[in-house]
Amino acid sequence: MSRQQTTVIKALPARFYTDPEVYRHELDAIFSATWQYACHVEKLRRPGDYLVCEIAGESLILIREDADTINAFYNVCAHRAARLVSGEGCTRRLSCPYHAWTYNTRGELIAVPNAQNVSGFDIGDYRLRPCRVEQLHGLVFVNLDDAATPMAEQVPEFARDLVTYAAEMPQLTFVHRTEAVLEANWKVALENFSECYHCELIHKKLANSVLDMNSYSIKVLECSQKHLSGSKAGDERAYAFEDQAASDFVSWWLWPNFAFQSYPGGRAHVWYWTPLDVEHTHLAVDWYFPSAEMADWEAELIHHHAQTTFREDQEIVASVQRGLNSRAYQSGPLMIDAARSQYSEHAVAAIQQLWRDAMGVDDD
Ligand code: FES
Ligand SMILES: [Fe+2]
Question: What is the pTM (predicted TM-score) of this model?
Answer without folding.
Answer: 0.95
